[in-house]
Amino acid sequence: MSAWLPLISALVIATVTTFGIVINNRANTRAITAADERNQTTLEAAQRNIELSNSAADTREHDKWRRDAVLESVSSILEVSEGILDALRRFEARQLGSTEEETDFTDLRTRLWSVSNSALKLQILSTHHLHRHTSQLQRGLAAAINDAESITRMSRTAYTDSGTAQLKLEDDIRKRGQDYSSARTKASQILYELMETTRKELRIPDHGVPPPHHYSS
Could you give the angle at the alpha carbon of 173 between the alpha carbons of 170 and 176, nearest 5°? Predict the structure, then answer.
């Protein structure tokens, strides 16, 4: 019996050692798996942060591009419209006899419709109905130009007519003058509304500055 003791002891030790190795390997495997999962979670979180950061940067870049495009389009429309209104004010001065400058109505129409591409951009890019204001402004200015041209044409004819015909023509000129005044005033008001709506679109603070006097005429 004593002869088997060393063998039995060796088997017991081997068995215990084997179980220890197996248990240790399982523990190591679980630890490695847990570490891998933590690493994977960390990598996924980092990837999400990168994606969110890139998305935020793309959004900021897109917003800047849209803001610049809206500002450029509105600035072009305002510049042309201001020029046309200034020409119409000179037309009024000529009617009052304070200047002999001729008004080129064809040029005014060409300048007015040169902003069509800018108006189309606003229809695509804006969210505060800037295109609607632009269309109303174009129609108002076009009506004022047409009325001013009719007044000019009728005024020239009035010099050659006489009697009842001349009186009727002068009455027609006065009526067309009222139409012209209404159209120009409306266009000036819409121009100011376009400016105010643009401020809202671009989130520009309103400091309560009153409109220039010729807008509210």
Answer: 155
In angstroms, rounded to a whole number, what is the distance separating the alpha carbons of residues 154 and 146?
A: 12
- Average the pLDDT over 82-111 and give the result: 83
Tens of pLDDT along 150-191? Answer: 888 887 775 565 556 666 777 787 888 888 888 999 999 999
Q: What does the alpha-carbon distance between residue 91 and residue 148 come to, in Å, rounded to a whole number?
A: 8
Say how many Å lie between the first and final Cα of the chain, rounded. 126
Alpha carbon distance 39, 36 (integer Å): 5
Write down the pLDDT at residue 84: 94
